[in-house]
Amino acid sequence: MNNALRTGIPVVVLPALLPLASPQPNALATGRDPSHAAGAVTSGLIETLSADEMTGVLAPEMSHIVNRDTRAMTIAARARAAPDPRAERRHGPWGKGPWG
């Protein structure tokens, strides 16, 4: 939030920042829009990074939320995961080909 205030970016809603119990250092952003968003940080990242480094990791995650990248990626993932009606014709209803 301090960086946003210094640069003049309006802070309307601060997303929740949730801790995840995992030794793997990682951070992520999720949510359909800024008012329904959350960020997550693993315990491995919290233990590994200093406060300045954590700011550097969280800034891109917050920009994903502000720019609604999370929504775009969700839509893209759902479209990719949707069943392909042509697949059943090619491979049959149980994934088998027309020969068995």
Task: Give a verbal description of the structure.
The chain is α+β, with helices and mostly antiparallel strands and 100 residues long. It has a single domain, classed as Metalloproteases ("zincins"), catalytic domain (Zincin-like, 2-Layer Sandwich), CATH 3.30.2010.10. It is built from 5 helices and 3 strands. The protein has helices spanning 2-7, 43-48, 51-66, 69-81, 85-91, and strands at 16-20, 27-31, 37-42. Strands 1-3-2 form a 3-stranded mixed β-sheet. A hairpin with a 5-residue loop joins strand 2 (27-31) and strand 3. The protein is elongated, with a radius of gyration of 20 Å.
Number of helices: 5
Overall 3D form: elongated
Strand adjacency order, main sheet = 1-3-2
Low-confidence stretches: none
Salient structural properties:
16% strand, single chain, 3-stranded mixed sheet, alpha+beta, Zincin-like, elongated, 100 residues
TL;DR of this structure?
This protein is of the alpha+beta class.
Question: Secondary-structure blueprint of this entry?
Answer:
Layout: H1 2-7, E1 16-20, E2 27-31, E3 37-42, H2 43-48, H3 51-66, H4 69-81, H5 85-91
